[in-house]
Amino acid sequence: MPVSRRALFAWLGAGAAVALTGCSVSDPRVAEPTGARWSPTPSPSPTQRPEVQLAVQREAELAARAGALLPVAGDRADVVTAARDAHQAHVDLLSDGFGPVDPPVIPTPAPAEDLAGAAADWGEQLTAAAAEHRSQALLVSGRLGLVLASCASFATVLGRRAAALPAAIGTAEPDEFVPISDTDALTLLTGQLHAARYAYHTALGAFQLSDDRRDPLEQRVAALTALRDRLSTALVDRGVAPPPAEPAYDVPRPADQAAAISITRGVEERLLPFVGAAVAGVATGDDLRAVVVDEVTATTARLVATGGALPRWPGLA
Predict the structure, then answer these.
(1) How far apart are CA 136 and CA 152, in angstroms?
(2) Which residue, of 160, 192, 225, is where some domain finishes?
(3) What is the pTM of this model?
(4) Rounded-to-integer distance, Cα 137 and Cα 142, Å
(5) Fewer CB in a 10 Å sphere around the end CB: N or C, the chain?
(6) ∠ at Cα 215 (211, 220), nearest 5°?
């Protein structure tokens, strides 16, 4: 059975709670130094991180660009507004969680005459920002690496669909971050890949799908299989036995083509947080890092292609 994100983080958090049990801190009374020479030791100033400053700048520019498109957005104003708000949420989290940062310098975007005409330039700006986010995500692990990978995925998928916007953009905020080791993350993700392949085969085998629907599903099965095999090999190299596939998973048999596509959409939704956990867990310099960072985008793209909303935080919420 696929594991929910809530269950994932409950499982991960259990060990951390045990480590704190039984600890106590004494409370000795200390006389405060007096006299003209005494002053409190100042706290060290936080160090500004250039990768955070760059990401904040790019996301602020993207928020301004989306805002400038609103007057010509027409009946897609809700999606463009959601895109603007998502970029601003990225700015806020990066600034508040990984600051300090200098206020971004935002040039005033040129007014657009129509949404279709501005789509190409908007897509190029999104794609360029996504490339910068991705390159930085490869160099940073843990929570920041996951946030950067999430921003890269959002911008990549939105950039590809700037001319034909996603059906919707989600508003869910990130779940609480729980650190995870690479072996735990890879083990969990490998288990989910078994379940994902089973669900896709169920969707494919229910009845005859049209070629335009079958081909993307078969391509996705091949990609999921390759990823599962790559992660299984990595686990063996780390001295960990890969989790075996279950004999069967609880997947309903689809009644029609729309239901089959709906099954695959659910697969991608459930897979995303496990891919995100792998991004947080796999160290920089590891050959797998680029694999899992790019898989956040691949999973997000498939989710949107099946009619799902583009998450505000792919892999994080």
Answers:
(1) 10
(2) 160
(3) 0.85
(4) 10
(5) N
(6) 155
